[in-house]
Prior knowledge:
Radius of gyration: 25 Å
Oligomer: single chain
Number of strands: 0
Distance between the termini: 23 Å
Shape: elongated
Amino acid sequence: xxxxxxxxxxxxxxxxxxxxxxxxxxxxxxxxxxxxxxxxxxxxxxxxxxxxxxxxxxxxxxxxxxxxxxxxxxxxxxxxxxxxxxxxxxxxxxxxxxxxxxxxxxxxxxxxxxxxxxxxxxxxxxxxxxxxxxxxxxxxxxxxxxxxxxxxxx
Length: 154
């Protein structure tokens, strides 16, 4: 995928994710599965029958959900058995382009710090404004290149 395609894909994904970023969903203490099942007035035995599972499986799944030890597939099956849609997403805490800019700034900052140190050793230290200009220049280069380079630890 070239840089233009990647930027367009990020923009489209960002449009889909933006509404989710503002959501504040507090997970019920005993898990979503148990909360929805009980709100529907469904027993664990009834849910197990709807899932085609052994009655002892539902409490085990509910416990595993709370501990984070269940699978997406299992949760999807339980949701379907309760006439629910299972929703799963990674929601970046900031817009994707902001995350890329922050990572580029971090990498450029490290490079400029190394450069500054080397030049000081050679008694050729740059002034702060020159270092900042170099940091910005490196950021632009990093952002113009493939985003994959941003995540490589040099």
